[in-house]
Design goal:
With about 170 residues, the chain is of the alpha+beta class. It is built from six helices and four strands.
Length: about 170
């Protein structure tokens, strides 16, 4: 039997982590081996993601969190429209909604501020958020742009497929 060594800096790879988990689960009877392996796959985030994608591909079901809604605030409608169009031109989103004026209260440099802002709702792949956020920060006039995302857990399956088709993976 191999010596059980927990994953550490010298053996932090996926293989060594799975090997460690397998060693911890021994002895396992052959009857429960498939369930134990399925549990191992679901425990490791990378393997869990791959398993969910495989399940989605085989069943046609939506994998929660595949897409996200990103909120971006803008000073006025002109800036909001320019940013929305730039996002769409780069195909970083399937859709950008421009919501009318809203009031905002916030602290800025120690003082309570109040302003009117325009809100963009950007619907995209979760995997695109880093690229989208970097791009918006590069063109946004605010010193610290408000860019926040939330994963989409469920939705209209036809709409989610449409999003999938309209935002390139790369």
């Amino acid at each position: 039997m191999l010596k059980t060594v927990p994953p550490g800096p010298d053996n932090a790879g996926v293989f060594s982590q799975v090997q460690y988990l397998v060693q911890c689960l021994t002895p396992i009877t052959p009857a429960v081996l498939p369930e134990a392996l399925a549990l191992l796959l679901l425990l490791h985030p990378l393997l869990r993601g791959l398993a969910l994608q495989l399940h989605s591909a085989l069943t046609g079901s939506y994998v929660p969190g595949t897409h996200s809604v990103v909120f971006v605030t803008c000073l006025n409608e002109h800036i909001a429209r320019d940013i929305a169009r730039a996002i769409m031109d780069r195909r970083l989103a399937a859709c950008v909604n421009i919501l009318p004026k809203s009031s905002a209260l916030y602290f800025w440099k120690g003082e309570l501020e109040e302003s009117t802002e325009i809100l963009l709702l950007v619907k995209t792949r979760t995997s695109k958020i880093g690229e989208l956020s970097n791009y918006v920060r590069s063109i946004h006039p605010f010193e610290i742009p408000d860019i926040i995302s939330l994963p989409i857990e469920q939705g209209n399956p036809a709409y989610l497929r449409w999003m999938e088709e309209n935002v390139p993976r790369r």
